[in-house]
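Audit log entry. Action: structure prediction of a protein-small molecule complex. Ligand: zinc ion. The ligand was supplied as SMILES and no pocket hint was given, so placement is left entirely to the predictor. Protonation state taken as written. Sequence taken verbatim from the request; no trimming, no tag removal. Recorded inputs:
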Amino acid sequence: MRCVYCGAEAGNTKDHVPPKCLLRKPYPANLLTVPSCADCNSGFSKDEEYFRLIIVGLLCHTDEAEMLFAGPISRSMDRNTKIEKLMFGALQPVDGGVILDVDYRRVYRIAEKIARGLQSATESGAYPVDQQFVAEFFEVDCDGAGSICGPDFTCRRLADAPTGWEFTLFSSVRFFVQPT
Ligand SMILES: [Zn+2]
């Protein structure tokens, strides 16, 4: 099996779509997995943690997101001051308050990775490894329709760009990821 992220032939590990760190336990029984090489699988993990801290920890606002935030994230922050610095390093003091200084490349890298994983599970197969994307995200307040992983993660095709994906985390933050 080829790695859906880099195309290497050694796609002999299973990568979860969406990343498990974005979901609460107990995980859904039918979690999607895609073939991935070991380098890609482990290479995304730090950015997945960053994505979780910024998107779920700071921007999502539902009780379900709070439950994830109050669980493994808090525990890993207690254990790991590096992660704590990473999160609060995103908050830059300015006159009269703080601004959120997000490394968007890391956030979009994970958004595109999720879209690659979703795409590879469809009949049209994986995107080419050199596929470029445009992505954007914004805050929403929705009801979790189209859920594939409880209220934590929902996805569907982009209405006006059927080769792209729309997914929503904790009914709070929505991503559009579209091949260019
Ligand atoms: Zn790979």
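Audit: result stored. The chain is about 35% helix and 30% strand. The radius of gyration is 16 Å.
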